[in-house]
Amino acid sequence: MATFELDNEFVRKLAELLGETGLTEIEYAEGEKRIRLSRAAPAAAMVAAAPVAAPVATAPVAAPVAAVPPAQHPGAVKSPMVGTAYMAPEPGAPAFVKVGDTVKVGQTLLIIEAMKVMNPIKAAKAGTVTQIQAGDAQPVEYGEVLLIIE
């Protein structure tokens, strides 16, 4: 097995790009060589979600629902990759799903474009779409909640 010479300047440039773009992970491959840089999501992003849930939690009836953040919800469909989410098969076409739709196992929910490849994201369980977190043509991170199926 050949040794892999690490270019420190290149790693620094990737780290700068990571910071400039706000991404949490970058992977670069050239032939057999592969490098992946990742960092923890900023704590501020997690704190920003708390004020949104706080007003809902003040209502006595909504308290049990608000107690489960989207990332912890058992019906959360999370992004398996970094890319751009598309809610429809092509511009101007109807969305694959919308809030209130009933979905079947294996049904396409949305597409994530990563490195010029369109990757369909399919339902792992049947149910009703109760929330859509991802925006059309918006970037998504690995592990980010795209939508919730109950």
Automatic annotation (TrEMBL):
Keyword set, alphabetical order: Biotin, Fatty acid biosynthesis, Fatty acid metabolism, Lipid biosynthesis, Lipid metabolism
The UniProt record lists the keyword DNA repair = no
Give the metabolic or biological pathway: Lipid metabolism; fatty acid biosynthesis
Q: Name one GO cellular component term.
A: acetyl-CoA carboxylase complex
User: In this record, what's one Pfam family?
Assistant: Biotin_lipoyl
* Residue ranges of domain Lipoyl-binding in the record: 74-150
Q: Which GO terms describe its molecular function?
A: acetyl-CoA carboxylase activity
- The UniProt record lists the keyword Lipid metabolism: yes
Q: Which SUPFAM superfamilies does this chain map to?
A: Single hybrid motif
| InterPro entries given in the database record | AcCoA_biotinCC, Biotin_BS, Biotin_Carboxyl_Carrier/Decarb, Biotin_lipoyl, Single_hybrid_motif
Q: Which domain of life is it from?
A: Bacteria
Which CDD domains would you find in this protein's record? Answer: biotinyl_domain
Its GO biological process annotations read: fatty acid biosynthetic process
Q: What does this protein do?
A: This protein is a component of the acetyl coenzyme A carboxylase complex; first, biotin carboxylase catalyzes the carboxylation of the carrier protein and then the transcarboxylase transfers the carboxyl group to form malonyl-CoA.
Q: What is this protein called?
A: Biotin carboxyl carrier protein of acetyl-CoA carboxylase
Q: Which organism is it from?
A: Nitrospirillum iridis
